[in-house]
Amino acid sequence: MTEHPLSDQEIDYKLALRSAARNYNRTLVASAVVAGGGFIALAIGVGLDAAVLFVVGVGLGVVNSQLVQRSLARAVTSGHTDRKAIGFGVLRRLSLVTAVAVLIAFVYQPYGWIVFAGLTVFQMLIMVTVLGGLARQVRQVRHSAVGPT
Question: Are 112 and 13 in contact (CB under 8 A)?
Answer without folding.
Answer: no
